Amino acid sequence: SATAQQFILSGMTCASCVASVEQAINSVSGVQQANVNLAERTALVSGAASAEMIIQAITDAGYGAELSE
Ligand code: 9UX
The pTM is what? Predict the structure, then answer.
């Protein structure tokens, strides 16, 4: 079955930020799809990727992320 994780993001202010965060998430092994919502400051990530690896990739790109409960 498909898995998805949601993250709360910080530091994004424009559409180019969205593209950077999506690129960072998509670089993580196991990610199938990343949908970043600028207005809601969220990322919905499908695939069997590690949440910690996703957060690390977003942080390395210069943004903040935490797993949404
Ligand atoms: Mo937009 Mo985001 O000009 O770091 S790329 S603010």
Answer: 0.94
Count up the domains in the chain and report the number: 1
Predicted complex: ipTM over 0.95: no
Distance 63 CA to ligand 1 centre (A): 10
Query: What CATH number has the domain bearing residue 38?
Result: 3.30.70.100
Q: What is the residue with the minimal CA distance to atom 3 of ligand 1?
A: 14
Q: What is the residue with the minimal CA distance to atom 1 of ligand 1?
A: 14
Question: 10 Å Cβ neighbour count for 11?
Answer: 14
Q: Which residue range is the domain that position 45 belongs to?
A: 4-67
